[in-house]
Amino acid sequence: MTIVWDQLIVENILLAGIIVGSIYLEQWGHRRSQISEEKESRRRIIMYLADDLQKRLNFIDETHQYSDYKPFFTDMWDAIILAGKHALLRFELFQSLQRTYSWMKYYNSELDGNSGKALDEKVQDLLEDVRKSINRSLNKLNETEEIKNSLEDRKIGQTTINVTSSNIAKRIINQVKQEFEV
Fold first, then answer.
1. To which H or E segment does residue 131 belong?
2. Is 97 left (phi over 0), alpha (psi -120 to 50) or beta?
């Protein structure tokens, strides 16, 4: 029995090509499904965060309306961080959101520090800083492509200004001046 080397080499090359091609196709399909899952997760996280921040703005308005200062709950943001899902967000967006939730936590700690005492101007100013930070984060979220695709014509987090005292009015005027300077 003689071995036909040409035929054996061609068959082995074809077999190797089929094996490599099937591995490549499997890897390509797996990567495509991962990208699709990440995109859907990113869209859901952004939608959740936009809704959460909008509710925080409403909470601030109610706080001013009823002069009932309560802490913010940031447990869902903490869950996003602990799950590692923050890596799906653009860095600038993550940075803005992290600052916003840090402002909320700082407000909570100041509120805890003043428990039992009359609220001072610092806590009220801090609440306005939280509002500004939320508005900046909502503006960043509005710039996000997933939000534009999901909501098309609806903007998230329209800036609402509730003037309850002359002090707040002064801060609003200063904020408008700062925005025009930028």
1. helix 121-143
2. alpha
Residue 1, both tokens: 């029995």
Tokens of 115: 């428990």
Q: What is the torsional sign of CA 141, 145, 150, 152?
A: positive
Domain regions of the chain by residue span: 45-175
Length of the chain: 182
Side-chain-side CA neighbours of 19 within 13 Å: the count stands at 6
Number of Cβ atoms within 10 Å of the Cβ of 119: 13
3-state helix, strand, coil in the chain (%, to 5): 80, 0, 20
In contact, 111 and 126? CB cutoff 8 Å: no
Structure confidence by residue, pLDDT tens digits, 117-145: 666 677 888 899 999 999 999 999 888 76
How far is 179 from 48, CA to CA, in rounded Å? 27
pTM of the model as a whole: 0.67
Largest CA distance in the chain: 104
Q: How far apart are CA 87 and CA 132, in angstroms?
A: 24
| pLDDT tens track for 50-101 | 999 999 999 999 988 888 888 899 888 898 999 998 999 999 999 999 999 9
